[in-house]
């Protein structure tokens, strides 16, 4: 009885042929696990639409602009992904990003008595964001106040702090080169190519490292050809992006920062014990607690990540404008960032979604805004379109969730 | 391995353990023991003290009186970590699995293997999960990489039970493992319970269902209103006798002493 069993389990797990993999994918799809398919389809659709409407849209210059336009919101959305993964919400991210802009601007004012080097100012701004996250997360984790309310209070408080700080002048200009370079520096062509090479080699090494270790352990490895095709595809994508940027001004530094943060956050979420525990808390906090996971620690640190990412986004916004003013952190930043994560396939109910969703969602939101501006529609159209896309994404999530639950039993 | 004859020293033994919550005496000088390789059933009506007993052993509640012995030596259990260190695992009624995680992730939840970069060692974890499930003849799970949300109730329960084997536990408490299952799935889990004991673990099977208990248990401890009514060997008792003990309390010598 027990001698026949291992073979059976192994055989079930080892579906390495192309046909078996496609069948498994199709089954998963029917079960409601669509991955990033809707996002990619949406991206293609939107791109085709704007390309047909505007001559400028599908150009190298506009692609480079797009990277600058999406970076701030995307970086903030990375933090949102973590918060959504544990089934919480952070409404304070908009004004935390604004406050970080104020901090970074304030700390570089010449002859103010608190002028620091640009990088120190940036680090300080991020530290402030993380500290705010720690405080807000503590209310959620230790006292049990709903995160919606804690961070709604944060939204009001930090907006107030920004107004108070900027009150007299209403604006702080940024002269520091390091800070301004964050959003405005453009890498040389060779630097761009170097990045593409490093990314592709790194991705290939990681992928084939996994392949080898699984093979050594005698586990199902997936189809080698398919794996190679995937590595080549993503490698080609990055090289194409660099080529397009180089055709224009070059790769914006902020694009590299954004990509690096996405990769780092994706690593933490998907490959480390910490990330595993984040997913566990989102799936079932009680199960996580009983398994010996420090749920409070996870909650507090996730809000710290959210605060730090919001601050980094705020630094990018401030750098882009070379200043902060009374509108810092306001407008549609908060809703864009949460929408980006949700459109990217991260569930509002916790435990489902990937960090790369922030990148896809951020890209969609930026493309819609960018395309509508280029075609010359009014701002009202932008809001309505983004709203409709968001509604579609959340509806899809809800339907899929129900379908997955149904497939479960 | 057969349950008879049992090893001389109980793996886990409770002597005169008491626990009260305010004025309520949840456990009143309860004696209980379980040995390696046997399935000890723990039965009792609602409020008999089964859950409290489990919580005391699991370190969630501390005991007010009496002593707990592990391998014949007195131990103190102040928290879940102490219980885990001794090798006592509780598989709770409501499962305690995270639906969004797959079978491997749940098996290793909170005890993941990692390397120097805090990176998860997925391959060895997946390998051992497959081996453990195979050793328990849990063959109905198609892939250990599917989320447990896609598993049936019986399969989920199997994963939760198998998790206790993975960690070289000595004593496993199963809190109503068949309560929410259909006939075939109950069969699956009962077979699994038997196999746990055959692998040398001391298994405590908590249930209302006398049919299940007579199917799988070697001995039966009956609790009633916080006291242990007695320990019965399955071979020498009947369902009627157990029901009698659960409802009316059988006048064992010990209870007469306590009552008088």
What's the alpha carbon Rg of chain A, rounded to whole Å?
22 Å
> Spans of chain A of 5+ residues with little confidence (pLDDT < 50)?
1-14
Low-confidence stretches of chain B: 253-260
Largest interface: A-B, 43 and 47 residues
The overall pLDDT average of chain A reads 89
Counting copies of identical and different chains, the oligomeric state is: heterodimer
Per CATH, what is the topology of chain B?
Answer: Rossmann fold
Secondary structure category of chain A: mainly alpha
Strand order of the largest sheet of chain B: 6-7-8-3-9-10
Number of strands of chain B: 10
Mean residue pLDDT of chain B: 84
Terminal-residue CA separation of chain A:
27 Å
CATH class of chain A: Mainly Alpha
CATH architecture group name of chain B: 3-Layer(aba) Sandwich
Helix content of chain A: over 70%
* Distance between the first and last residues' Cα of chain B: 42 Å
Residue share in β-strands of chain B: 15-25%
Description:
The complex is a heterodimer of chains A (409) and B (260). Chain A has a two-stranded antiparallel ribbon. Chain A is mainly α. Chain A has one domain: ABC transporter involved in vitamin B12 uptake, BtuC. Helix content of chain A is 76%, strand content 1%. Chain A starts with a helix and ends with a helix. In chain A, helix 3 runs parallel beside helix 16 (356-375), helix 5 packs across helix 14 and helix 15 crosses helix 16 (356-375). With 260 residues, chain B is of the alpha/beta class. In chain B, 34% of the residues lie in helices and 24% in strands. Chain B is globular, with a radius of gyration of 19 Å. Residues 253-260 of chain B have low confidence and may be disordered. The chains are: A mainly alpha (409), B alpha/beta (260). Chains A and B meet through helix 1, helix 9, helix 12, helix 13 and helix 17 of A and helix 2 and helix 4 of B.
């Amino acid at each position: 009885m027990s001698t026949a069993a291992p073979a059976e389990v192994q055989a079930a797990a080892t579906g390495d042929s192309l046909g078996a993999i496609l069948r498994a994918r199709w089954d998963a799809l029917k079960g409601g696990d669509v991955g990033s398919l809707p996002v990619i389809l949406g991206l293609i659709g939107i791109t085709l639409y704007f390309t047909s409407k505007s001559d400028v849209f599908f150009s190298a210059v506009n692609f480079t602009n797009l990277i600058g336009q999406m970076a701030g919101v995307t970086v903030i959305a990375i933090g949102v992904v973590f918060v959504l993964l544990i089934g919480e919400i952070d409404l304070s991210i908009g004004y935390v990003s604004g406050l970080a802009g104020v901090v970074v601007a304030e700390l570089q004012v010449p002859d103010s008595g608190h002028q620091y080097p640009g990088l120190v100012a940036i680090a300080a701004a991020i530290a402030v964001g993380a500290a705010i996250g720690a405080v807000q997360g503590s209310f959620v984790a230790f006292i049990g106040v709903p995160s919606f309310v804690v961070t709604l209070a944060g939204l009001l408080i930090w907006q107030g702090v920004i107004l108070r700080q900027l009150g007299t002048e209403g604006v702080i200009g940024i002269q520091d080169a390091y800070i301004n370079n964050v959003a405005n520096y453009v890498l040389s062509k060779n630097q761009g190519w170097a990045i593409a090479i490093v990314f592709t080699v790194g991705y290939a090494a990681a992928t084939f490292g996994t392949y080898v270790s699984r093979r050594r352990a005698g586990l199902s490895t997936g189809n080698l050809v398919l794996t190679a095709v995937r590595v080549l595809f993503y490698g080609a994508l990055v090289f194409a992006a660099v080529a397009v940027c180089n055709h224009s001004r070059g790769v914006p530094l902020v694009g590299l920062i954004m990509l690096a943060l996405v990769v780092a956050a994706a690593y933490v979420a998907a490959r480390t014990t910490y990330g595993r525990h984040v997913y566990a808390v989102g799936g079932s906090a009680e199960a996580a607690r009983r398994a010996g996971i420090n749920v409070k620690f996870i909650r507090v640190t996730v809000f710290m990540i959210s605060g730090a990412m919001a601050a980094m986004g705020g630094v990018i916004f401030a750098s882009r404008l070379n200043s902060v003013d009374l509108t810092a952190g306001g407008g549609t930043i908060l809703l864009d960032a949460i929408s980006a994560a949700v459109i990217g396939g991260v569930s509002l109910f916790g435990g489902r979604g990937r960090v790369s969703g922030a990148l896809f969602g951020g890209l969609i939101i930026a493309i819609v805004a960018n395309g509508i501006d280029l075609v010359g529609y009014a701002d009202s159209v932008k809001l309505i379109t983004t709203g409709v896309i968001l509604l579609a994404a959340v509806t899809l999530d809800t339907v899929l969730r129900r379908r997955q639950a149904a497939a479960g039993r | 391995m057969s349950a008879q004859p049992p090893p001389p020293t109980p793996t886990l033994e409770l002597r005169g353990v008491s626990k009260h919550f305010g004025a309520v005496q949840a456990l009143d000088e309860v004696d209980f023991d379980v040995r390696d390789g046997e399935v000890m059933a723990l039965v009792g009506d609602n409020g008999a003290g089964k859950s409290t007993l489990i919580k005391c052993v699991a370190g969630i509640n501390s005991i007010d009186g009496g002593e707990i012995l592990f391998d014949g030596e007195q131990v103190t259990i102040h928290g879940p970590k102490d219980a885990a260190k001794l090798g006592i695992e509780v598989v709770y009624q409501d499962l305690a699995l995270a639906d969004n995680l797959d079978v491997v992730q749940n098996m290793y939840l909170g005890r993941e293997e990692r390397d120097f970069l805090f990176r998860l060692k997925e391959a060895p974890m997946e390998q051992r999960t497959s081996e453990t499930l195979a050793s328990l003849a849990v063959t109905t799970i198609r892939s250990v990489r599917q989320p447990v949300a896609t598993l049936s109730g019986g399969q989920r329960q199997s994963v939760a039970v198998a998790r206790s084997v993975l960690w070289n536990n000595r004593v496993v408490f199963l809190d109503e493992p068949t309560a929410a299952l259909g006939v075939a799935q109950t069969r699956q889990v009962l077979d699994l319970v038997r196999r746990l004991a055959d692998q040398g673990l001391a298994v405590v099977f908590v249930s209302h269902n006398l049919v299940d208990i007579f199917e799988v248990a070697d001995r039966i401890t009956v609790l009633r209103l916080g006291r242990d009514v007695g320990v019965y060997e399955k071979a020498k008792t009947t369902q009627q006798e157990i029901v009698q003990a659960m409802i009316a309390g059988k006048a064992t010598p010990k209870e007469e002493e306590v009552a008088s």
